[in-house]
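Colleagues,

Please find the record for the two-part complex below.
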Amino acid sequence: MIDGLLIGLSTALSLKMILMVVAGCLIGTFIGMLPGLGPMSIIAIMIPVAISIGDPAGAIILLAGVYYGAIFGGSTSSILINAPGVAGTVATSFDGYPMARAGKAGKALTIAAISSFCGGTIGAILLMIFAPVLASVALLFHSAEYFALMVVGLSAIAAFSSNGQVSKALAMTLLGLMLATIGESALYNMPRFTYGVLNLQSGIGFITLAMAMFALPEAIFLILDPARTKPKSEQENAVKDLRISKEEAKTIAPVIARQSFLGFFIGVLPGAGATIASFLGYAVERNLSTKEEQKEFGNGSIKGLAAPETANNAACTGSFVPLLTLGIPGSGTTAILLGALIALNVTPGPRLMVDQPEIFWSVIISMYIGNLVLLVLNLPLIPYIAKILTVPRSYLIPFILFFTLMGVYIGQNNAAELLILIGLGVMACIFRVAGYPLAPLLIGFILGPMLENNFSRSIQLYDGIGFLWQRPMTGALLAVAIILVLLPTIRAFLSRRRNTI
Amino acid sequence: MSLERSLALFFLTVSIIYGYTAFFVIDGNLPPFAKMSPVWPSSFPKILASMGVVIGFFLVLSKPSPNTKTELDLQQLQSYSWFPAFALLGMMVAYALLLRPMGFIVSTFSFLVIGAMVLGERKLLLLSIVSVIGSGGIWYLVQEVLGIYLRPWPWFLSGGF
């Protein structure tokens, strides 16, 4: 391993390679901030540039920089304007945006940057140590276990079901799951719930729903109630304040440590990825918190921000395990990276470490460098990025609405999708006024297709629902999901009983 | 009827319509060979619909929760700025309908300028400069740098629809 590391270091630490990482991180961060352009699209766009470099190690280092930059850029738009451009950063907005609204945008971005750095770096160490062993463990996960894992991911909705809101959170999750079934089904490509509308044939896009549920209602409420915007002087002071106090550092340190491991191991499973890791990380941390801390979740909890940010970065690193050791892309982004590697005459798989060690190790070293460069570049930039919030509202709101429309249009290239966005956005405003939580709807929508596909596949494989109790790991995961969902209700019941006594 | 309960009723109605489609419509188009399979495209929706109807009834019949945090004070509705909100929503609809025929730069420039004016901005020169940079810059980034096609000018300058 030491020899490999030295090979990787000698390749990745040249001036040319460091410039590649810096360029990749900057490009990724700035383009990633635009809703609608996630890491997958940015990497796809950058492939021709990477191939033109000619050197596989240089190309992969550039793409790794773009990848990490894009993830951080996505978190920035989630935190500042409540517009999560990719599914992996949806959980970031749950607490990141309330922090920004409370005048802690600078602090929220700093926590996001540090959590991302730690998650990515610890993930890279774990990748180096466990890659070959984990690749074989990941293959033990079958569709039944994936189905159960998705159910565990859905348990994140428990975080939005406090104060007797369980039934509302469940209703919104079901609504999200129902919306996810609109369009062609994976089984036999049959159109479902389209009611003859051609534009619904390919379903509702994730960006459309994310913007409709989060960014659009927020902009509408800012217009309706100008008092929601803080005075300019107050905001300017707040965005400059990046410092994290000792107590805050102590609070998030164990969260980062736990979520780096959890995120990495979830990321190793092909198909699970950063989205599940971030939702699961959020749910786990909420359940581990004290009763007082739990009340802060969804209202600007630093734990609620650090957990998904760490987990999604660690999961992104984890998704490289099946790619590098088995040649199996575990996510859309790694599938595109696989394509880029093949175009550069590199075939990832069990023999990569033996045949082309310089590629294998330079990918791992580039992860460390990418994360470090991202932190060094972005920390000084945070006050400037956060200044977006001090722009006068008469300019800021039309721009937020324009970016919302743009994100949807770029993603779908269909003007009718914009009308769907506006309709869903108005509906989301009404739901929010009535106190219905919208995050469970989006969680249901994101996990719905994976849940249904693995459910259908398991039923076909086991000729019924016997897999629920025949496979011990499936049963155990489902038990964890039930505990995570019921824990808040049981705790509330017990404390009420204690108070009565 | 309170807004909370009206939405519960809406959810129940959606679940019933969804359930009707899942139980009685989707399977009608299923090819004969697919009927041999233990799972059909309607299987998962049927489960969702059943759960939706149960939760929908529960929500309709349960008391509205007293400690619900809401975004707007429903007793003070007249104190909110309804005109700019509806005007901007209308402009978004117009933007969606005019984006293709009018082209990206013209539609976006108009949207940004009129949107800011509706919200009270009166410095027209500054506003026009910001909007030109905003619409032109984003068009350049998306079309020229990223290679995603966005027609910049109206149909009569770009050779038809």
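Chain A touches chain B through 66 residues (CB under 8 Å).

Comments are welcome before we finalize the supplementary table.
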